Amino acid sequence: MEKIAVIGGGSWGSSIAILLANNGYRISLRDISFEQVTEINEEKTNIDYLPGVEFPENITATTDIKEAVKDASVVIVVVPSHAIRNVAQELSGLLLDDTIIVSATKGIEEETYYRMSEVLKDELRPALHENIAVISGPSHAEEVSKGIPTTTVVASKSRRLAENIQDIFMSDVFRVYTNPDIVGVELGGALKNIIAISAGISDGLGYGDNTKAALITRGLTEIKRLGVAVGADPMTFAGLSGTGDLVVTCASQHSRNRRLGVKIGNGRSLDEALSEMKMVAEGVRTTKAAYLLAKEIGVEVPIITKAYEVLFEGKHPQQGVNELMVRGKKHEIEEVVKNKENW
Length: 343
Prior knowledge:
alpha/beta; Rossmann fold; 11% strand
C-alpha cells in the first residue's frame, strides 16, 4: 500500500487524510499536538476539529515529521500559512528527489507576499522545485470528511504531475480538475478569504442578500484585477478556486473567515474575535498582505482596502460600507466599455 504523508492535523489536513485513506493509501498524519496524535491513534477521532467523524484504520498519526515522511511518495502540506516556511525548512533535507509535494494551504505570506508554493520553493532544495503542486477550491473540511460530494482543482506547471495528483485524490465523492495556472489557483483560494470576512461583517451588521451579492461580485473583480497584475490567467477566477471557493466561503456556516467577520460586524474588535475562535482564519493575515501588495503595485482594491482599515486601523464597519457606497461613479466592466467605440 503506497504511503502518503499529510503534514498538519487540523480540520482540512484530517479531512484530506480521511479522503486518501478511503482511496486505499496508507496515511501518516503529522501534527505537533501530542494529545491530538494520541486521540487519533487510540480513539480514531479528532473531536476538536471534526466532531462525529471516525478515522479509517489506515491512518497513523505522529508528532515526528521525519517519521511521517519516511517512505512517502507524496507529501501534502496543510499547515497555517504563517507556519509553512518553517515546515518547508524541516522537509527540505528529509525528502527524496522524486517526492511529490502538494500545498493545500490557502494564504499569502505577510513579509514577502509569496504564495504558498513560492514559500515552499524558497525553502526546499532545487531538486524538488518541479515536484510542487497546489490544490484548491470549494472544499469545507466538515463536508469532505463526511463524504459529501466535492469538486476541487489541482494546479502545476507539469500536466503529468497535475494528472498524477488528480488520480490520487479522485473518488466517487471527490472530483478533481487540473489547471496549469498555479498563480491564479493559489490567489483565488487566498484572496476569497478577505471577501468572506467582509461578507461576514455585512451579516453581522444586519445587511441582506443584496449586499452580500454585491460583495461577492465586486470582490471577484478585485481578486481578478490583483491576480492578473501578478501573472494569473483571468479565466481561472471563473473556476473552482475563484467563483466556486468565493461563493461557498462567503455563504457557508462552516466558513471560519465569515464567522470572524460576523463577530466584527457585531461589534467585537479583531483581537476579541480571534480569541473566541479555535481555528485559524487565514483571511486576517491575507488581508494585510494583499492590501500592501496592491498598494505597492498600484492596483485598486476598494473592498480589500476597507477590510484592512476595519481589521487593522480600527475603522467602524458601518463607516467602511458607507465609504464604499459613495465612491465615484464607475463603469461595471471597463473592458466592455473600451470595446464599444461609440458608446
